[in-house]
Design brief:
binds FE2/S2 (inorganic) cluster; Glutaredoxin; 3 helices; 28% helix; 4 strands; 100 residues; 4-stranded mixed β-sheet
């Protein structure tokens, strides 16, 4: 497999053993499935990976896209995912969910 053009990191709230899990995973139920389906249907060259807690819990669910290095907050639900992927597809940044 060749390296993807875009790498999408989705916070899955993992923390070191003993620490309570963060909140993103509670808010993004079904998010990975929907995002994967959208990437395929749009023909985007993007790979999704889940991550540990990105230390932005109050702003979760958090999504980070590389190589742009764009951090998004409150990416919750299909509408938010669509907005972020629309921006990625058109080479823009989705200001509405941007984590500044
Ligand atoms: S659980 Fe996602 S930023 Fe902490």
């Amino acid at each position: 497999m060749e390296k993807p053009t875009h790498h999408i990191l989705v916070c899955a709230s993992f923390r070191v053993k003993g620490d309570p899990k963060g909140v993103c995973h509670k808010k993004n139920d079904g998010m990975l499935q929907y995002m994967e389906e959208e990437i395929l249907s749009r023909g985007l060259d993007a790979l999704i990976s889940t991550t540990g807690c990105l230390k932005q819990c109050d702003n979760g669910p958090v999504v980070v896209i590389y190589p742009q290095g764009t951090w998004y907050q409150k990416v919750e639900g299909e509408e938010a995912i669509d907005a972020v992927l629309d921006a990625l597809e058109s080479g823009e940044v989705c200001e509405q969910y941007l984590l500044a």
